Amino acid sequence: MIDKIDHIGIAVHSIAEKTPLYRDVLGLAFEGEEVIEEQGVRVAFFRVGEAMIELLEPLDKSGPVARFLERHGEGIHHLALGCPDIDEGRSRVEAAGIRLLSDKPLDGAHSKLISFLHPKDTGKVLLELTQRNENSEKAT
Ligand code: ZN
Fold first, then answer.
1. Residue ranges with CB less than 5 Å from ion ligand 1
2. What pLDDT does 139 receive?
3. Residue 63 belongs to domain with CATH number
């Protein structure tokens, strides 16, 4: 079901402050910035081969990423696994007794459908399932 690491999410206080590290020092291609109101974040993507690094900056003090920064400071926030069918992915996870953080898939960046697994059921790793969007990305 899962066939790649789609991206690694990193919580930051400021995307603008961290962009020179990923783009200029590490030389990764900047793949655009996007505001996802539903999750209270601005995100920026940098390509690393088939995968991406996603920087997450909170829009205000109340969202989940803001709370993460308050508790842990900046650092790795989640690991996103790409799958062709998010409904199938959700069913498999739920059948195994692992809780999902939303009743249905959410809208993620790049118009992808995403779902988070409850970190208490995954050994404290926040895992995200991401469904490939065949319209905006070549199938691999
Ligand atoms: Zn993500």
1. 9, 54, 80, 128
2. 39
3. 3.10.180.10
